[in-house]
Amino acid sequence: MQHLYQQKQIVQNTENQIQREIQYYIYQDLENALCQLGQLEETIEQLEYQKDKSYLPIAMNKVILQANLSFGIHFDQYSQHNKTSGNFLYQCKTRAKSIFEEALNKKIIKNTHPKVKEICNFYLQNIFSQKNMQQYEELHLEKVQIESQFNQQALEKVIWGTQIVDKQLKQLQNQEYKPPTGQEIFEKIKKSKKHCEEQLKINFQNDLAQEQKQDQNKLRIQQEEYKKQTLKLQSVNQNSKKIKNQNQDLSQQNKINKVEDSRRTQYPDDNQKGAKQRNKTQGTKGQYQIIQKQK
């Protein structure tokens, strides 16, 4: 009897251990996925006005790799525990999907950029799907223009992260696992986005300052060019106005000449009388000059 009780206790402990591990993997991965998506959106916003966007595909690939890792985790959990703990796994996946959708509905993850939408759809339709996971699926990485370099700090972070996971899994053998609430995950997303924003400003502030300086120089050149064009236009307008006034004077003189010519044509006698009068005046003046000489 005692032996039977011990056997049942062992089985129960094993089931509890499996359930704790399922919870840990599903919810820890959910938290990582949402934080990574939040950081990607923050990166997209911060780099929107940066001319050099070569870092953006790297940031996207970081989240794509996380999504592929998430699928691998769910695939592994399904392969190991679907037969023995399938119902519990289903409950965890359903709750995780609900929290993921709540993050989208509350705009904690805005889900507006095409690449973010693609990744979110991959989670909703493939990772959180209740269909049988018969084969591994993954998202394709973005092409990166920057030449890859070995980063010792990144490697150390990966090793450190692996050690943390192992430590936490060992702790689950002796204690209960309390799944995080949606609100707790949302708070971590906000903190993660804030940290990402600060890091981006530090890393790109020199580039941004340089771009702002270049923009200021371009603006100054544009202002100088505008000033030159304005002065040139004013000079053209003045010359045009001067020519217009000259044309108006010439037109007025032509009108006067036409009127004078028309009057002469209409009144020829007045013209002859005027001529005779001028001749007569000139003749009288000539006779007077002769008389004066004779005297």
From TrEMBL:
Residues 236-295 are annotated as: Disordered. It comes from the Eukaryota. Residues 257-273 have a biased composition (Basic and acidic residues). Residues 236-248 have a biased composition (Low complexity). Residues 280-295 have a biased composition (Polar residues). This is Uncharacterized protein. It comes from Paramecium pentaurelia.
